[in-house]
## 1
Amino acid sequence: MRITRNLRITAGAPLAALALVALGAGTAGAAIPVNQPMTGKATYYDDSGYGACGTQINAATQLLVAVPYSWWTTANPNNDPLCKGIAVKVSYGGKTLTVPVRDKCPSCDSTHIDLSRPAFATFAPLGQGVINGITWQFVRTGLAGQTVPVSQPVTGSALGH
């Protein structure tokens, strides 16, 4: 009888762990607060090479954003929901710009974004270094890069056709 009980415990632990992994896997996309404005700060960077989404970037010349590490939900960032049609809409000083998520900012807190050099320059001179009081939010985009309302299906021109 003791052997059967130990066998049940030994077999039950991996099954419980598997269930937790399966339940957690479906919630990654839900963790991104799409269309929920946040107030924070922006800095800029000018790295080039491969971004966290696994694509070539040049933050010195391209419009893009690195978002805080805390919003990334997968061990392999290439597979993260942030790399699948999510952009950041940034507003400050009467200007608004939507830039695609292409990288991760390891030193940014949850309301701090790291804009590429040209994206930052849209809002302030590079010499300023930090913009406090920006409003930003995650938005969904079509494959061609334009913002798509959450309720709207991604079709036609949003797909780049």
## 2
Amino acid sequence: MTTIRSKVTAAFDKLAAKQPDAIQWGSIQQPTPVGTGGGPSDATGGTPGVAPDPVPARMAVFEIAEKRIDGTNIKAGDFQVIVEPVGIEITLADRVICDRGTLIIAKLGRVASGGETALYDMVCRGGS
């Protein structure tokens, strides 16, 4: 039985074969967790833990069309980033690293059928 996830991968493969520059390899960087401390009585905020390794991800990154910009949810300079499912569940705290730099996820856009993530159709903006 073909899953939605496998159909998305096949669509990425087909697009990459026709337009190799449309699909790129980037990564998802999860935030560094607090290693120790950081409780209410710890004024230092805790010591950082070990940063997780970036998770490789295949993605398509597009500038958002001007007609979609509303100034609130989608701003000038934002990007539409379509990401294949990866080995982690992407969250708003994560960062997308691609040819446009390190992007902040403004809208996650998780597309899931029956609980299985098929793809992410995110709105991202520049930043760190």
## 3
Amino acid sequence: MEETVLIKAISDMMDEKLEPVKEDIGELKQDVGMLKQDVVELKQDVGMLKQNVGKLEANVGILKENVEELNKKSVKMTGKIDMLQQRISELEFTMEDKISYEIHLIAENHFFLNRQLEYMRNTWRR
């Protein structure tokens, strides 16, 4: 019987020593469970981030196309502006030429009128 009591005492002593280990194992199992949940959440987040990156890449592609289109339009507008500036210069030259011609005609008419007035004065005096 003494042997049984001794075995029982050893068993109880081992159970006492193993109890904190069992508690630690229980806590570790809980921690592992929470870590697994965290891993699942992280995988979901990574999946959503990959989708967002895909959308961003598509948007960047669209933006690049829009920038290229704007550059082309800018080149066209620059050409049109140059053409309009040339046309304005031509019109300014034409207007200056016409104004100069009109001034010349007015001066000739003035000279002619002055000669006629002088003639009329001289004729009246006689």
## 4
Amino acid sequence: MNHYAGVTTTELRQLEYFIAVAEELHFGRAAKRLGLTQPPLSQQIRQLEDELGVRLLDRTNRKVRLTDAGRAYVAEIRQVLARLQAATETARQAASGAIGKLVVGFVGSATYDWLPPVIRRYQDVCPGVELILREMPTNSNGGFTLWYH
């Protein structure tokens, strides 16, 4: 169990399990949806409640209901998991070069001829990459320089 600023962090699997139970309001159906049997699912939900120090579900033999804490928690957890999914996609895009910054250093004469169509084409192909254009002194490298961040 990890602690950040006094907050207990749980495993993602437990959060996904809790969301399934919260949506199904039935341990058997949630277990089937998750490809589990009911006892391990119940155990993971109980462990999550113990770690949080709150009861998330009211359980009877016939039904499961979210407590006020459970309703509040499931709403927040959905947002957290959506942000985690977005962060994962952002990392993958950055690793592939689909997003980021590209600094292009060029000499002034390049703006009259070949640079504008190249820049337009690049922006069409890589809209997630921020282009930063920097005019360089004419005695630099003779045309252009690239830096990728």
